[in-house]
Design a protein that fits this description.
The protein has nine helices and seven strands; from the N terminus they run αβαβαβαβααβαβααβ. By secondary structure, the protein is α/β, with parallel strands linked by helices.
């Protein structure tokens, strides 16, 4: 098989959760451009349909709640009815804390004050959602004897947040990166290794892709500070993860499982 053919996903079906988000849309685009039929999945039906429309004819928008087992079963049912197979699962859906009231963000984001309900809500989506989608959709792959699961991790699943990144130019702490995002992404990486070992003999590969910080209209001081701590001296662009995702989803990574592919501009090497 040629190298180009190893990256080709023509004839395969990929499910992407959290598809309506900034990176979710790029994940869908990458897989579609590699030839896959993509099921773009998120909570909002119209948003899913919008993503599918952007991708063109070889895509479907299907609303689903990754924390609801029946909803995930229904998603799998649609995939099998429409395409007859599932080859790739990208567990991308996640919550990254946003505080509705910026004035309260500093105090609420302190570990000592961090709300239990925010902790539980994020764990439910970021960890339980990955568990349920892998359990239900991954079991279909294991039964078929092949498949690739890509769990979206984070640099903060590998290293702790440096809270000084969130200081403004006057030295004031704007907010603290919350405890639940690193905890949940660390759990995703451990779960990735578990599944890789568990389903290796069944022909299902399970890997993580851990993005670095993505430039997305943050304050200039934050962008500059983050870039200065990265060997490539910039934050990621939303398209920077597309090639890595296709690699992990395709036969190009046929001997890769249980790995965490850091695409972070070198942020975690220091």
């Amino acid at each position: 098989m040629s190298l180009a053919a190893q990256f080709d996903l023509t004839g395969r079906t990929a499910i992407v959760t959290g598809a309506a988000g900034l990176l979710g849309r790029r994940h869908c685009k990458a897989l579609a451009e590699a030839g896959a039929c993509v099921l773009a999945t998120d909570m909002d039906s119209s948003a899913c349909e919008s993503v599918a429309h952007e991708l063109g004819g070889n895509a479907l928008g299907v609303a689903a709640d990754v924390t609801d087992p029946q909803s995930v079963r229904d998603l799998l049912k649609v995939a099998l009815e429409q395409t007859g197979r599932v080859d790739v699962l990208v567990n991308n859906a996640a919550i990254n804390d946003m505080f509705e009231n910026p004035a309260a963000a500093l105090e609420l984001s302190r570990f000592e004050n961090y709300p239990l309900e925010m902790w539980q809500r994020s764990l439910h989506v970021n960890v339980t959602g990955v568990f349920l989608c892998s359990q239900i959709i991954g079991a279909e792959m294991a039964g078929a004897g092949k498949g690739s699961i890509v769990n979206i991790g984070s640099t903060y699943g590998v290293v702790a947040p440096d809270q000084s990144l969130y200081l403004d130019p006057d030295g004031n702490q704007r907010f603290f990166k919350s405890p639940v995002y690193p905890a949940s992404k660390g759990a995703v990486l451990a779960f990735t290794r578990f599944l890789a070992a568990y389903w290796g003999a069944a022909g299902v590969r399970v890997n993580a892709l851990s993005p670095g910080g993505v430039e997305n209209r943050q304050d200039d001081f934050f962008i500059q500070e983050y870039a200065s701590r990265t060997p490539l001296k910039r934050m990621a662009a939303p398209n920077d993860f597309m090639g890595a995702l296709v690699f992990l989803a395709s036969d190009a990574s046929s001997y890769v499982t249980g790995a965490n592919l850091l695409v972070d501009g070198g942020f975690t090497i220091w």
